[in-house]
Amino acid sequence: VREIWKSISERLREVLALLNVISAEWMKLRSNRIFTVCSLLTLLTSAFMVFRDLVIVDNPPESYQMWLPSIYIVVGMVLSIMSGFIITFLMQREYEDRTINNVLTAPTSRWRFLFGKLVIWFIWYLGTLIGVVTIYTIGGWLIYPDTFGLAGTKILVSTLLKYCLLGFVAAIPLLTISVVQRKLFYPTIMVALVFTGIQTFALNIPFKFARIIPWSAVVVQSLMELTLKDDLLTLGSIFLTGIVGLLAAYWLFKKQDL
């Protein structure tokens, strides 16, 4: 019983230490403008897309089924680009201001520090995504008042959440690039643009390649009807990329001489 209690206590201390790291990162997030700017740009882009089809365009797509695929692509593209800026800021500023040295001289493991950055990135991503989903749901009801309804809402919410959350997993290697680049600003942004390009033009890539390239596999998995084999292949490609990206980021970060 004593050994079990000791093990539980150690786990609780680890959890509390991680929560302290996340809390510290959250305080930085709240006081910084780049998170607000990236969120506003993403939300305003979504609002403009709805406004365009509702007011500017004389003939929007005839049905919401034709309207939704373009929405998924635009949202995935914008969130992917903005993620490049967010993760770059999260890591690059630590190196540039040398605050990373102060943080890691305190009793904070490198794994907790890196995982805290990932969690904050995900919190921003999910919060912004929820706002985007809300805007497009309202837009669907306004643009297609007679047909969108609960059925359209269900399709939009489920598909957009799946599309973007898988996109987040596939984008985790950006964390690896941000560790390698240290004080540099542009490498992570450039790689994010490459990921975005592959994802945006996924439907133009031959299927046999698109299903195994993780960033195009996000589109294939979310927007196509797949066999069990292709379903497993696309999901395996996406999650393997995310896991390898996180482990590589930790391994490289652990080896760095700060």
Describe this structure in words.
The chain has 258 residues and is an all-alpha fold. The chain contains eleven helices and no strands. It has helices at residues 2-30, 33-56, 64-96, 99-105, 110-143, 149-170, 173-181, 186-200, 207-210, 214-223, 228-255. α1 (2-30) crosses α5. The mean pLDDT is 86.
What letter string, H or E per element, gives the SSE order? HHHHHHHHHHH
Helix percent band: over 70%
- Our Rg estimate from Cα atoms comes to 20 Å
Low-confidence stretches: none
- Estimate what percentage of residues fall within beta strands: under 5%
Q: Please, how many helices?
A: 11
Which secondary structure elements does this structure contain, and how are they paired or packed?
Blueprint: H1 2-30, H2 33-56, H3 64-96, H4 99-105, H5 110-143, H6 149-170, H7 173-181, H8 186-200, H9 207-210, H10 214-223, H11 228-255
Helix pairs in contact: 1-5, 2-3, 2-5, 3-5, 3-6, 3-7, 3-8, 5-6, 6-10, 6-11, 7-8, 7-11, 8-10, 10-11
